[in-house]
Amino acid sequence: MNGIEDGVALISGASSGIGRATAKRFAADGSSVVVADIDADGGEETVSQIEGEGGEATFVETDVTDEDDVATAVETAVDTYGGLDFAFNNAGIEGEQVSFADQGNENWERVLDINLGGVFYAMREEIPVMLESGGGAIVNTASIAGILGFPNLSPYVASKHGVVGLTRSAAVEFSADGLRVNAVLPGVIDTPMVQRSSEEDPDSMEQTIAAIPADRLGEPEEIAAAVVWLCSDDASYVTGQPLTVDGGYSVQ
Ligand code: NAD
């Protein structure tokens, strides 16, 4: 018993990759899950995988940049499952990978709006609902790009540094109210996001793996385990932390 059983979790970006693996892990550990994503087919597939394993989940089509959609996702957790205990604000995009001077305004605005705005809008809706029931736990997906620089990814890197800042601010503001807020910082994880860039440039994947001390990509389930731990009672005194899960990438 670590508090995850019988909880209610809202997970964005849960139609794929890290979000889907985390939705499945929350459900396997006993939480009811609201699967929120812009991709309806993937979201329904996540729900059906959870139900197939005996878990409880509902899909809500959600664009994390749309405040009304985000409010609807939070309301769905309350109306369907009676409250909101955990939120994993995880939806994100890599954006265009081009040099700094070639980054267009459109890419800048889109990456910042989804990766950083999406986390801000979500927390603004989630926090009051959690406080009403005495607290909860939020995890936001940043990245090792939230503490390190990477070439050709300046909007992504800026957005993920911003997620770390939002996380720390909310953690300090609500620590005395029973609400913990942490960030998970994945390294290079084997999801469709990474598979897309490796298809574009297969050589770059070999170089990337060579730079990872663990000598392999991470699995989405390894991020899910960290997120569920951060939300559990086992992490009851952990808040405001950027937790890297990266096979040693960021510490060499
Ligand atoms: P993914 O592409 O497999 O999944 C991302 C999900 O986000 C998709 O289901 C997509 O539909 C959803 N999404 C995109 N825009 C959305 C929007 N506007 N509203 C709602 N949903 C939207 O990628 P992933 O690797 O699972 O990435 C999940 C998160 O992890 C992202 O925030 C990403 O930046 C972060 N991350 C990934 C890695 C990695 O190596 N895979 C590393 C560090 C951080």
Automatic annotation (TrEMBL):
Gene3D superfamilies: NAD(P)-binding Rossmann-like Domain. The keyword Cell cycle does not apply. It comes from the Archaea. GO terms for molecular function: oxidoreductase activity. Keywords: Oxidoreductase. Belongs to the short-chain dehydrogenases/reductases (SDR) family. This is Short-chain alcohol dehydrogenase like protein. It comes from Halovivax ruber (strain DSM 18193 / JCM 13892 / XH-70).
